[in-house]
Amino acid sequence: MTLRVSLSHHFDGFDLDVAFEAPRGVTVLFGPSGSGKTTVINAVAGLLRPDLGRIVSDDLVLVDTQARRNLPPHKRRIGYIFQEGRLFPHLTVRQNLLYGRWFAPRDARGESLGRVVELLGLDHLLERRPGALSGGEKQRVAIGRALLAAPKLILADEPLAALDETRKAEILPYFERLRDEVAVPILYVSHASAEVARLATTVVALRAGKVAAVGPPGQVLGDVAAVGARGASSILTARVVAHHADGLTELAAGEVPLWLPRIEAAPGRVVRVRIAAQDVILAREVPRGLSALNILSGTIAEIRPGQGPGVMVTLNIGTQRLSARITRRSAQAMGLAAGQICHAVLKSVAVAPEDVGTGTRL
């Protein structure tokens, strides 16, 4: 299943002009406030009629302005997850979930109630009402209700924005399961790099109403022009080796050891680790006597200057790439150049729990 979007729309003081494809998995619309993310998702949902465009979900044409086709929202087979759960307060969790069934076509092959309950860990909540649920639990019920409508597409408009960090950590693994185990494309709006790194299979970076970049998260998040200098980061794929008594987890990023605060994943599990470019220090010689545990050696692949005083230095470390954001002055003082051996230094505690994702679609 694939979503194809091409649309243009004019507001006073703002023009949106975007085109992209969202394959199976999670496609994240990523960018700062005012970049056009919610406008795009509302056009897909049918809450906004674009001036010009064509939107196709698999084989179903949602919008084609040239052909004067604009399918009503209730016929689009879309599940919409809002920032708040928007559950019916007088119904139990079970009844809220089953409400989604009213919107599923009779011949639709969707998820069963039992499967959704198991997928989202809702079995012990079925007889409760929304007033007795946490924010994270409400969002899980909202996800389940959307799934039971047998959608061809799921839209999620910053679904974690209203949650505190504890609740975000609680619900992110469920979105990872949704990505890995449900054959429905998900269009997910976010301005948080950590969410993008954990969840995305495809990233569409928006800036000022235009598509700045499209591609895998590691590629797009490393593009300063697309995400901005402070949002630039790398994604390393690593395997959990062991958990140690001092609270650290040992990983292997290819042949390179990596030490992070304890990760809740069994040895042998593959994880995705986001490393912010501004948290990486570079050295020409192997550093000694440092408190930082992670020293990753590689070859400089490229050095990209920015508009300000910084440069982005990207290293090839085995089959993976790691970027460091340093000042132009430091790069010149160190005499950095493509092809040189260089050593990246990373503090273990610089990587937060929300920067580590699990799942099969990595």
TrEMBL record:
Keywords: ATP-binding, Cell inner membrane, Cell membrane, Membrane, Molybdenum, Nucleotide-binding, Translocase, Transport. It comes from the Bacteria. Residues 2-233 form the ABC transporter domain. This is Molybdenum ABC transporter ATP-binding protein. Residues 289-355 form the Mop domain. SUPFAM superfamilies: MOP-like (SSF50331), P-loop containing nucleoside triphosphate hydrolases (SSF52540). SMART domains: AAA. The keyword Transmembrane does not apply. GO terms for molecular function: ATP binding. InterPro entries: AAA+_ATPase, ABC_transporter-like_ATP-bd, ABC_transporter-like_CS, Mo/tungstate-bd_C_term_dom, ModC_ABC_ATP-bd, Molybdenum_import_ModC, Mop_domain, P-loop_NTPase. The keyword Amino-acid biosynthesis does not apply. It holds the Pfam family TOBE.
